[in-house]
Each structure stands twice: as C-alpha cells, then as structure tokens.
Amino acid sequence: MSVRLSSRAWLAVAAGLLVFAFFALQLLLQGPFTRLDHQLAQWFAAHRTGWLNAMMLFVADAHETEKVLAATAVLAAWRAWRHDGADLRLLAVVPAGMLVNLALKHAFQRDRPVLEDPLVHLTTYSFPSGHAVASTVFYGALCLLAWHHARAPGLRAAAAAGAAAMVLLVCASRVYLGAHYLSDVIAGVAVGTLCVVAFQHWRSLGRLAPGA
C-alpha cells in the first residue's frame, strides 16, 4: 500500500526545489545576489560585538556534525528501545542529509567568505551550508516526532516554533561568524527541507507496511 504526499508536503517540495535552484543559478552565473552575499558578509564583520561573538560561536560549536550525529544516535537508540521502526526511518534523515550536503559542496565548490579578521577558519567548501542542512533535518525530525506523538495543538505549535527558531539561530550564527554567505544557509535550509519531506514520506510508508 502507498500513501500520497499531502498538499503541504508538495508545497514544501516545490518551494525547496525553487529556492535551491534560484541560489544555485545565482552562484553559477554570478548573479546579483552574490554581490549582496559579499556586502552582507562585510557588514557583519564590521558590526561585531564581544558578547554576540561568544554566543554565535557557542551556537555554531553546539551544532557541529559530530554533536548533531551523537544527539541523533541517542534519539535513535531510544526509539529502537521502544521498537518504533517508523521513527528510526525518520531519524535516518540526519546522516542522509549530511551526505547529500557533502555531495553538493563538492559539486559547486564555492569558496568561503574572505574576511580581514575571521572568527572561524575553515577550508571546506561553502555552498550549501552544512550547519543549515544539519539543523534543518535534525530539528525538522524532532518537530515531526513531536507531531506524531503529541496530540495537543499547543505542544505541536511549540514544537514547530522551537524548531524554526533553532534553525534560524544556527543559520544566523554561520552568516554572522563569516563562515557562510546568506545564500549558503538559505540553500541549506531548502536542501534540508527536501530531505525531511522525503524521509517523512518513507516513515509514512513504513507505518502502512505489514507488521510495521
């Protein structure tokens, strides 16, 4: 038995594809948004403050690949203990999303922002942002888990708002620190959203399978 994507899921897919395609073309063609990218990076570099530097460095460090994967592994172990294979399928979006991002980085090979006084020193490629993808798939999966297991509208709304706020904070930290351009993080959220929709669909299919 199969299940169709909902209209909201199709809307998310369409939006994700359009957003990623737009910024990918801007990068490949060196469109006007790339100039805005550079201007914004320079503006943030010129308007830093000590306390905000510390906060953004903390946020970025807390969402490094190893830490996000470790948190996902703990959640997966809990769902495995509860014998919930559907939730495990959904949580698989986190490592899968990171692999997709790695492939895209090597496909586009965009250099990181170049600043006179960088707060972070990275040698990997910039587009799309790995932190943006990782936070989107991780908090997106958490939000969907909350929606599947909590029926109260208030709890569902809080889960959605919390997930959106965390993704926004992580993305802001990457642009503020000069680790990424604005288009990198927006494209990363688009990629992460597409991954979450795909794995949520896989989770739904698993729920309908015999013995699931």
Automatic annotation (TrEMBL):
Keywords: Membrane, Transmembrane, Transmembrane helix. Coiled coil: none annotated. Pfam families: PAP2. The keyword tRNA-binding does not apply. The chain crosses the membrane at residues 128-147, 154-175, 181-199. SMART domains: acidPPc (SM00014). Residues 88-200 form the Phosphatidic acid phosphatase type 2/haloperoxidase domain. InterPro entries: PAP2/HPO (IPR000326), PAP2/HPO_sf (IPR036938). This is Phosphatase PAP2 family protein.
